[in-house]
Design goal:
The complex is a heterodimer.
Chain A lengths: L1 H28 L4 H7 L7 H10 L6 H13 L5 E2 L4 E2 H34 L5 H16 L2 H15 L10 H4 L1 H27 L2 H8 L4 H31 L1 H7 L4 H10 L3 H29 L12
Antiparallel strand pairs in A: 1-2
Helix pairs in contact in A: 1-14, 5-6, 5-9, 5-11, 6-9, 7-9, 7-12, 9-11, 11-14, 12-13, 13-14
Chain B lengths: L1 H22 L8 E6 L14 H10 L4 E3 L6 E3 L2 E6 L5 E6 L13 H13 L15 E8 L2 E6 L6 H4 L10 H4 L18 E7 L3 E6 L20 E6 L3 H9 L5 E3 L6 H6 L3 E3 L6 E7 L4 H4 L1 H10 L2 H8 L29 H10 L3 E2 L5 E3 L2 E2 L1 E5 L7 H13 L4 E5 L3 H7 L8 E6 L5 H7 L23 H12 L3 H17 L3 E5 L5 E3 L3 E2 L2 E2 L5 E2 L4 E2 L3
Parallel strand pairs in B: 1-10, 1-11, 17-18
Antiparallel strand pairs in B: 2-3, 4-5, 5-7, 6-7, 8-9, 9-10, 11-21, 12-21, 13-19, 13-20, 14-15, 15-16, 22-25, 23-24
Helix pairs in contact in B: 9-11, 14-15, 15-16
Classes of the chains: A mainly alpha, B alpha+beta.
């Protein structure tokens, strides 16, 4: 058990190093660099010599391998460098933007899980055929709604028309209401779909037939047998979606003017702010790795068949 | 036609002013104003303040040595009570106002002012602080007494006095100047002597400014004196156009920057105010890079100039707040001369010029010479209003005379690199705002913005193009100390640039803001940067 966990941790570290390296190489391959873009930008009007001097001051003229080792060393010491675009340490940018994105992602994921659960339950409702049909067609609709459009619609209706919540300078409690709703809708769609399909599949399994033959009622079978078997795949899905949420909140954050990792990434990409991008890639890789590790460890608790076997038993 | 158009254009602005004057009661002190910005500020080192989101912050928290009256463009006293300039414009002496302090309590005295200008004039290599674009030929400063400072220049620098009034000349505390450039994007570290101070920031999202209670050194002739009327300004970044406008109309914000031309009517029809101050600089234009053989021929450039219908661009994409260009620089800029008769839309002339230059119409509707099609490429410039639409409309206009214009979006890196290469970008959109004749020099001179990409600038890709006659004229502007002669030279440069058809001016670019009906006294510095010093919110 311990050995397998250690093995998984080692793999995770390798993935992180690979992400760092690939990101570094790709960012180097882009035309131009942040120093050039910042100082050549029309806002400053510097001369050729002044720009050349600044490039030297920023170490943008050093050989690539030297820059790589330098940056890697700094990362290991927890120094992510400066954002050339914003003129602040990357660590400060992250510290100010990460919490709001984490909150948004966490709440949106929770809301999406609830929504998916409700849809899945409705899809199994006895007696109301039209409700079942409706619940089953919702995921396709949800996934088809553009987040951008949904966000603007929610703002226009609930904030600007009805005046229920403020989006411009919201109180803390109202700040995340509409963004969470906006984000939860598309995220819930794949989860609901997987959950519904799995429930249907599990209902077809022999052991369900056995349970029914023993006289179990539909609800009892659903809760005691089917749900437990249908959940693991949905959980994996939720894990992957959470990782995507962290970066994928770009649109929501932009529409609602929330600061956050999404907006920060978008700005960094637009301005080729290499130090910021490097940090974001490593952070995202870290989030993905940590979550899949967590799910790997959590899964056996839900499904004993997946329990880690003692070393050598396979 | 031109005269009628101009008076029509002026009408909305006048009505706006009249309405505001009528509603002006006794100013109310206090309150919080919510100002929506389209983009977040970046680095707040004052010489980097040209970026509009930066200047929206810097103009509230820093003071300048002098104040350029936005109406008359005269230079008036501010932190400097008086000044003298020697005959060759190589020596400036400023006498400072006593009792002025930075918000950290340190005095704005000769030593602090000298250090500011040492930094802006020479840069600080160790701290990576770059020099300011508006200060040329700077040599050194001398502290004569605690309130008198002298600046010396290696060569005449007649633009310097106006340069002390611009955003880039904002004075900051010695503590701020001791920080490396990479930390100056943190607004809480920018310590100025202005009417507002930074209270709180959430990077990329919001900046809160509070009025300074003891502020008593506004521009000497400003209608408002004493502390700012507002207590607090909340600058909130709201990137999405529809949310900015919706928020304003729904009463959730007071002032917004960047109103698209197509939204103006909607805002105005609801009784809200539109402000469109001119940026008074080089017009929004399309510039040629004559190093590229396809546009090296003056006949081709002239043909494209006459194939461009700027009136259609303005009528289709913009509003009355975007006057059609009549010269290289705006009609509100210093030294402007009206060259409308040389900027006519004349497709017939255009076709003749292209025929003469040997570009014959091909079967596919694109002209060609020696097997090469007359196809040009330009990158859109996102900071300029509706730039992609503008370029695409111009592309349609050029297509009618058989010239192809490819409009590329591209990432910033490719755009930056390709924009330095005349072979890849034979044409490029350009504009810059500054209320001094120096603006025309800094736009075209090889070692500064170098819009035409001459040899001797940042770009290593330029083969041979250099125009010594143009550069001599530009140098003369930079060196001419007699104001009248300086303006005359500015006129000459405009004629020269249009005669050579180096640029196609399109329209005079404003900065468009909208404000709630209750907002009063919302002002601008000379090139359209917002000033909340005299702003107040009327009672309902």
């Amino acid at each position: 058990m311990t050995r397998q966990v250690a093995q998984k941790l080692g793999q995770a570290l390798l993935v992180l190093l690979a992400a760092f390296t690939v990101a570094f190489v790709l960012l180097q391959a882009l035309p131009g660099d942040a120093v050039l873009i910042k100082f050549l930008g029309s806002e400053m009007g510097l001369t050729a010599e002044q720009i050349a001097e600044l490039r030297i001051a920023y170490g943008a003229d050093a050989p690539v391998w030297e820059q790589y080792l330098h940056t890697l060393g700094n990362f290991l010491r927890g120094d992510f460098g400066y954002s050339i675009r914003s003129g602040v340490p990357v660590a400060q940018l992250l510290a100010e933007n990460l919490p709001s994105t984490l909150w948004l992602a966490l709440l949106a994921l929770t809301a999406a899980c609830l929504l998916a659960l409700v849809l899945a339950l409705l899809s199994q409702l006895e007696g109301f055929g039209w409700v079942r049909g409706l619940a089953r067609s919702m995921p396709s609709l949800f996934v088809a709604v553009p987040v951008f459009w949904l966000g603007i619609m929610l703002i226009q209706v609930f904030s600007f028309q009805l005046g229920l919540v403020s989006v411009i300078a919201p109180e803390p409690w109202e700040e995340l209401v509409l963004p969470v709703a906006t984000l939860a809708v598309p995220i819930s769609a794949p989860m609901a779909q997987v959950l519904i399909r799995n429930i249907d599949a599990v209902f077809g399994e022999p052991f369900v037939a056995v349970a029914r033959a023993k006289g179990a009622r539909h609800q009892w079978v659903l809760w005691r047998h089917v749900f437990r078997n249908a959940l693991p795949a949905t959980l994996t899905m939720a894990g992957v979606l959470f990782g995507e949420l962290l970066g994928g909140a770009v649109v929501t954050e932009t529409v609602f003017g929330l600061g956050g990792l999404g907006g920060m990434t978008q700005q960094a990409v637009a301005n080729q702010d290499v130090a910021v991008l490097q940090a974001i890639v490593v952070l995202s890789a870290f989030a993905f790795v940590a979550i899949s590790l967590l799910i790997d460890l959590l899964m056996p608790l839900l499904d004993p068949r997946l329990a880690l076997r003692p070393a050598g038993a396979s | 036609m031109s005269a009628t158009r101009r008076s029509l254009l002026a009408a909305p602005a006048l009505i706006g002013l009249a309405r505001q004057a009528a509603a002006q009661g006794a100013p109310v002190r206090g309150g919080t104003l919510i100002y929506l910005e389209q983009q977040t500020y970046t680095n707040l080192y004052p010489p980097a303040g040209g970026f509009y989101p930066n200047s929206g912050v810097l103009n509230q928290i820093t003071d300048k040595l002098t104040y350029q009256n936005p109406r008359t463009l005269e230079i008036e006293p501010w932190i400097a009570e008086s000044w003298t300039v020697n005959a060759t414009a190589t020596e400036y002496v400023f006498r400072l106002r006593p009792g002025v302090t930075f918000s950290d309590g340190t005095p704005v005295d000769a030593a602090a002012v000298a250090k500011n200008y040492e930094t802006y004039g020479l840069g600080n290599r160790e701290l990576r602080q770059p020099v300011s674009e508006v200060i040329t030929n700077y040599d050194r400063s001398e502290v004569i007494d605690p309130l008198t400072v002298r600046f010396l220049f290696k060569a005449p620098s007649p633009g310097f006095l106006q340069g002390t009034s611009v955003i880039g000349g904002g004075l900051v505390s010695l503590r701020t100047l001791a920080l490396p450039f990479d930390q100056l994007g943190d607004a809480t570290k920018i310590i100025g002597s202005g009417p507002f101070v930074v209270a709180r920031q959430v990077l990329g999202r919001e900046l809160v400014l509070n009025a300074r209670q003891d502020y008593n050194w506004g521009p000497a002739k400003h209608p408002h004196q004493g502390r700012a009327l507002l207590d607090t300004i909340r600058i909130i970044v709201t990137g999405e156009d529809s949310v900015r406008i919706g928020g304003l109309l729904a009463g959730q914000a007071h002032v917004i920057r960047q109103v698209q031309a197509y939204d103006e009517e909607r805002v105005r029809s609801r009784g809200f105010q539109i402000f469109a101050p001119s940026t008074r600089g080089v017009n929004n234009s399309i510039a040629f890079r004559p190093d590229n053989p396809m546009v090296a021929d003056i006949r081709v450039r002239r043909a494209l100039l006459h194939a461009t219908n700027a009136a259609e661009v303005v009528a289709t994409l913009f509003s009355a707040n975007y006057p059609q260009a009549t010269s290289v620089i705006a009609s509100t800029a210093q030294g402007y001369v009206n060259l409308a008769d040389r900027l006519t839309f004349d497709p017939g002339l255009s076709a003749r010029l292209l025929d003469e230059a040997g570009w014959t119409m091909g079967a596919n509707g694109v002209r060609a010479k020696d097997g090469q099609e007359l196809a040009l490429t330009a990158y859109e410039s996102p900071p300029q209003p509706r730039n992609k639409d503008t370029l695409q409309l111009v592309a349609q206009q050029w297509a009618r005379v058989g010239v192809k214009l490819n409009v590329l979006a591209g990432d910033l890196g490719s755009r930056t690199v390709d924009s330095l290469d005349p072979a890849r970008t034979p044409v490029a959109p350009a504009m810059v705002g500054r209320a001094d004749p120096d603006v025309i020099r800094s736009n075209y001179y090889p070692t500064t913005r170098n819009v035409l990409l001459q040899r001797g600038g940042v770009s290593q890709r330029v083969q041979s193009f250099v125009d010594p006659e143009l550069n001599a004229l530009l140098e003369a502007i930079a060196a001419e100390t007699d104001p009248a002669k300086r303006l005359a030279l500015t006129g000459e440069v405009q004629r020269y640039i249009i005669d050579k058809a180096y640029v196609i001016p399109l329209f005079e670019e404003p900065q468009v803001f909208a404000a709630a009906p209750r907002v009063r006294g919302f002002g601008f510095e000379a090139v359209g940067r917002p000033s909340f010093y005299g702003t107040w919110i009327a009672a309902r």
